[in-house]
Amino acid sequence: MTTATSFWLGTSWKMTKTLGEAGAYADELRSAVEAGNVPPELRLFVLPATTSLATVHDRLDGSGVTLGAQNAHPGPDGAVTGEVSMSMVRDAGASLVEIGHAERRTLLGETDDMVADKVAAAVSAGLTPLVCVGETAAERARGETPGVLAHQVRAALGRLGRDRPSELMVAYEPHWAIGSEGRPATPTEVSEGLAVVRRALDEDLMGTPTSVLYGGSVHAGNAADLVTGLDVDGLFVGRAAWTAPGLLDLAHRCTDALRRRRPRRRTTPDLVSAIVRKDPR
Ligand code: 13P
């Protein structure tokens, strides 16, 4: 696996924001970028609801903020009522697409098979896949975390064929850490999860620049510790970045933390094996 170099900070707006609210957020973000208030080492991304993609694209075009969709259907354009295709979200301005978020897996029955189809379709459409993987609380309690994560990563990439993404993003998002009922993961829990994800990626993806992010109850109080303490290439935020000032505040905290960060030491294969032995599937 080739690690991408800059640090990602982004947010999914999930099922929030009218067109007016989305446009106002985008305008505020654009003004901050143009005023030089977003440090250059950060790559910001925003995933609006599909209804706001085109509006947000118009407002942020040329600002350097990456725009993505929260989901898209893997099939070609055609008779699939209620869905939008990869090429349609690309046309609306998305350059990345989130696939396999915990809420889609648990509330909407998105399976590893569907995730694999979507990843392959995203790559064919020229979109960067942002694949979310994570274990449920029950899987963690049964000691299945490493096996579940490794399986989800391999399954997600399993239909790529000869098409390789020019860039890949994978977010480790334990289901139990997400949302208002979530418990923020401890740095040790995050770091063990990230190590398993990286190992599974190493086996599967030679040479594709890949960023491994963490998401789940990231907020102003824990962002800096996550950046300094972990081998992580970015943070993926929900609620704490649903306002532009929230995202900008996190941007400053992450940048300060990045400047204090010691050169990163990759978790060694021995440590990963120890984690997997301790917690077999
Ligand atoms: P919260 O930050 O609201 O827990 O959501 C995280 C998330 O789901 C990012 O994809």
Overview of the structural elements:
With 281 residues, this protein is α/β, with parallel strands linked by helices. The chain has a single domain, classed as Alpha-Beta Barrel (TIM Barrel), CATH 3.20.20.70. The chain has 11 helices and 9 strands. Helix 1 links the parallel strand 2 and strand 3. The structure holds 1,3-dihydroxyacetonephosphate. The site of 1,3-dihydroxyacetonephosphate has 15 residues, from strand 9.
Helices and strands, in order, run as: EEHEHEHEHHEHHEHEHEHH
- Anisotropy-based shape: globular
Strand-pairing-aware structural class: alpha/beta
Number of strands: 9
CATH architecture: Alpha-Beta Barrel
Terminal-residue CA separation: 24 Å
Give the CATH superfamily: Aldolase class I
Broad CATH class: Alpha Beta
Spans where pLDDT lies below 50 across 5 or more residues: 267-281
Adjacency order of strands in the biggest sheet: 2-3-4-5-6-7-8-9
Helix content: 40-55%
CATH overall fold name = TIM Barrel
Estimate the strand proportion.
15-25%
Mean pLDDT: 91
* Bound ligand species: 1,3-dihydroxyacetonephosphate
Domain count: 1
Count of individual helical segments: 11
- Rg over alpha carbons: 18 Å
User: How would a textbook summarize the main sheet?
Assistant: 8 strands, parallel, barrel
What structural keywords apply?
42% helix, disordered C terminus, TIM Barrel, alpha/beta, globular, 11 helices, binds 1,3-dihydroxyacetonephosphate, 281 residues
